[in-house]
Specification:
By secondary structure, the protein is mainly α. It has one domain (2-9, 16-121). It contains 5 helices and no strands. Helix 1 (2-26) packs antiparallel against helix 3, helix 1 packs across helix 5 (97-121) and helix 4 (67-92) packs antiparallel against helix 5 (97-121). The radius of gyration is 16 Å and the shape is globular. It starts with a helix and ends in a 15-residue tail after the last helix.
Length: 136
């Protein structure tokens, strides 16, 4: 069970940092604007993508939320990564690394979800206990 918790918290932390915190810190930069316009999305999508990513990241990291809420956050990120791969593939081609990167992040998300479910079925309450040294 200890290795499952370590994998869960490692994968979840990576998702939260790179899909929640990083977009929140950089959403108003020229690079973020260019990334959204490169895919031919309107600029207001950038704001909404960032908003929902931050909310999803908060939901994933908070303990003791209802399982259904966490499942919706995992589903939202899954759709985000799948459609990001499709968008990049349609614009940049299937051989571009930006097409495949969201699928790599999706694999990390799936690892987090599988470990989350293992910890849930082990009877650990409504959420895995925080990693050692983290107080919530």
């Amino acid at each position: 069970m200890k290795s499952t918790k370590i994998i869960f918290w490692t994968c979840t932390t990576l998702i939260v940092l790179f899909e929640g915190l990083l977009p929140a810190l950089t959403f108003n930069t020229a690079l973020a604007r260019q990334g959204v316009s490169h895919l031919d999305y309107p600029d207001y999508f950038r704001v909404w993508f960032t908003f929902f990513k931050v909310i999803g990241a908060i939901i994933l990291i908070l303990p003791r939320l209802p399982r259904r809420v966490k499942d919706w956050a995992y589903a939202g990120f899954t759709f985000d990564f799948l459609f990001a791969a499709i968008s990049h593939g349609a614009v940049d081609g299937i051989s571009d690394s930006q097409t495949w990167f969201p699928l790599v992040v999706l694999a990390i998300l799936i690892s987090s979800y599988v470990c989350y479910n293992k910890l849930q079925t082990a009877g650990r309450g409504s959420a895995p206990s925080p990693a050692p040294g983290l107080s919530m």
